[in-house]
């Protein structure tokens, strides 16, 4: 099905400020970009580069004063994420090279401290997809998804001691537990159809059965289309914008996602 996703950001800066944005999804086997629009405030230009994880990044210098970015993407995606109960664990020595960085501890996913927790959660489960499902269900049952509750990123171990969290932090815990079991896991940021309240969303993917599968502790099912914008080891790799220097005020962040009949370029 075709979906249109939009994002509008407006900032106010006292001085000219360098930014890196990560707002452009890329085509892949799970999604195809039919049309896109990326508009910057008048007089601002950007240079695009690809980061080590394949994400499309836009580098620019925002002027002092008001500055805005408006994006729109028409994307062909499935109506829900694939599920595969019973998909087997892939032995580390047989993993594709590109998945290996997602086995290691990272800034917000200290998997080396989660081995005991992960083992207790998945006791009796078939190695692979079923273990990832058990981890996702544990997070969903023990932590309340509370949009707006987390202004600062917290680590997996920290969020496991809390009773509520945002999507980003719940994904961190899922990633850390998967990696503790030698299952590659990565953070994804993007759009989720019918998310309430609508915003950019974070979930995680785990590599089992020879491919990546989506897991989302914030949702009770895997229905609803998703548009992935960025992949990384944790939130430090997938921020939709990073600014350098004095703090810049974010005035607006508006996100929409809705079905369309066909792309209109």
Please tell me about this protein's structure.
This protein has 265 residues and is mainly beta. It is built from 4 helices and 14 strands. The strands form 4 sheets. It has a 4-stranded antiparallel sheet with strand order 3-6-1-14, with no helix packed on it. A 4-stranded antiparallel sheet has the order 4-5-2-13, with no helix packed on it. Strand 9 and strand 10 form a beta hairpin. Helix 1 crosses helix 4 and helix 2 runs antiparallel to helix 4. The radius of gyration is 19 Å and the shape is globular. It starts with a strand and ends in a 5-residue tail after the last strand. The mean pLDDT is 95.
Tally of alpha and pi helices: 4
Helix content: 10-25%
Beta-strand content bin = 35-45%
Oligomer: single chain
List low-pLDDT spans: none
Q: Structural class of the helices, strands and pairings?
A: mainly beta
Could you spell the SSE succession in H and E letters? Answer: EEEEEEHHEHEHEEEEEE
**End-to-end gap:** 17 Å
Number of strands: 14
Give the overall shape, derived from the CA principal axes: globular
Lateral arrangement of strands in the main beta sheet: 3-6-1-14
Mean pLDDT: 95
Key terms:
mainly beta, single chain, 265 residues, four-stranded antiparallel β-sheet, 15% helix
In brief, what are we looking at here?
The protein is mostly beta strands and 265 residues long.
What is the element layout, followed by pairings?
Elements: E1 2-13, E2 17-24, E3 32-40, E4 46-50, E5 56-62, E6 65-76, H1 115-121, H2 129-142, E7 144-145, H3 156-159, E8 164-165, H4 167-180, E9 185-192, E10 201-208, E11 211-215, E12 226-232, E13 241-243, E14 249-260
Parallel strand pairs: 7-8
Antiparallel strand pairs: 1-6, 1-14, 2-5, 2-13, 3-6, 4-5, 9-10, 9-12, 10-11
